UniProtKB/TrEMBL annotation:
Enzyme class, UniProt record, top EC level: lyase
Cofactor needs: a divalent metal cation
CDD domains hit by this protein: NAAAR (cd03317)
GO BP annotation list: menaquinone biosynthetic process
All residue ranges annotated as the Mandelate racemase/muconate lactonizing enzyme C-terminal domain in the record: 148-241
Gene coding for it: menC
Name of the protein in its database record: o-succinylbenzoate synthase
Amino acid sequence: MKLRGIELRRVSMPLVAPFRTSFGTQTERDVLLLRAVTDDAEGWGECVALTDPLYSPEYVDSQQDVLRRFLLPRLASPEGAAALGRSGAAAVAGALHAYKGHRMAKAAVEMAILDAELRALGRSFGRELGAVADRVPSGVSVGIHDSIPALLSAVEGYLDEGYARIKLKIEPGWDVAPVAAVRERFGGDVLLQVDANTAYTLRDARHLAKLDAFDLLLIEQPLEEEDVLGHAALARQLATPICLDESVVSAQTAAAAITLGACQIINIKPGRVGGYLEARKIHDLAAAHGVAVWCGGMVETGLGRAANIALAALPGFTLPGDVSASGRFYRTDITEPIVLVDGHVEVPTGPGLGVTPIPELLDRVTTSVEWIPF
């Protein structure tokens, strides 16, 4: 494969409503998109970094900078070009390994090149990754609200839309009471889980144990990302399964967490772990150890959402993921909208991602474009 260059495109996407978590409130997404141009096809990648380094050390300006100054020049070098020529997208991780961290930028590069490669071959993301389903159950992430009545109204709306699972964002002061209210209002048949985004410490174990009364699928990332031992200790004190998100940044860290007993479930976010090929390795590792996985979301556009749906169709993804319809976050997506049908979303079957940006919609939200020739 001969890569001619990569375009870095920033877009600003307003959300349909503010999305509040324990680390902040989003009202729009400043998204970095990559367009890889080869001799045979074009492919798209999406960097999931947020505007500020709150979810992870990466933030969108830093990812654009590291791409421009280090990662793309490395791929454009004779050694990088030779590796891409031999192995395509599979060579990206190895070629960029010398540069520490910046997994979200690396994932976006790999995604764009893999999309171009698969479009040229006429193969879909799902087929390449090993999908076994043609549709996957869709869960929805519900942010922190100003009041319990507002939360109940939001949850009712999502259940009426048909979402298969509800995830409530929690933080100290907004945990037991809202969970209890949702359970009381909607009953025990609703698949329900919570996500703390690192908001607690091990000193909160007794308080978090109060959530055991509500038959939750899991509690996601209650402690700081580096506190794997703390999660192992917490897992021994809770009946609710522990799910790790921010703590798992590679197959290697996933293996350590599993070995230490720090989690029974893993949320796999391709951007967080360096790409879809690494995400597949984590899926395979978890399956070998009997650990359930599901696909998390980062408020992606239709591009990243389509790739996540393809990943979620692998056999080890036994829990509904945050692969909601486009309308959950955006009134107008930059691709044809992904829609919810009977609580499921369809796995794209077209070449590559199976979706492409609609030019006029993409231009409407574009704030900058930069071309990096190879």
